Amino acid sequence: MAKKPKVLPSIEWLEPRVRAMRVISLLCYLGLVGLLCVYYLLIADLHGARPWVILLIELVPLLLLAPGMILGSARGHSWMCFVVNLYFIKGALAAYDPNRQLFGLLEMGASVAVFCSALMYVRWRFQLNRKLAGEGDISVA
Questions:
Q1: Which DSSP helix (H) or strand (E) runs through 65?
Q2: Which of 26, 30, 65, 100 could pair with 94 as two cysteines, CB 3.0-4.6 Å apart?
């Protein structure tokens, strides 16, 4: 039995969503970075450790992917979907500590927002690229 070809959404439907998800994912990414900076530099009690050292260690994975996120690379956004799961896990662990519960919940929320928006950007970006390449056009012979 022949497999039905998937019909891609129209270019007019995809373009605004790709632009919106790129902006939303970048804002969520910057929000997560900002949350970490505010928490470790102003709020966290690190028991004598230097806050900027801890912050730098926390930000290394996010900063490695910053060029891809800023430039709108679909590959950079897809890698961000993998990396941001670490921050979700870290936030879940922090949420169990009564002293860091609010920070943990905020970190989990920010990481879920980054994950979902980056994932939707990648999905719609690849669909738009396929549509622009002429794939998915159904022609009647």
A1: none
A2: 100
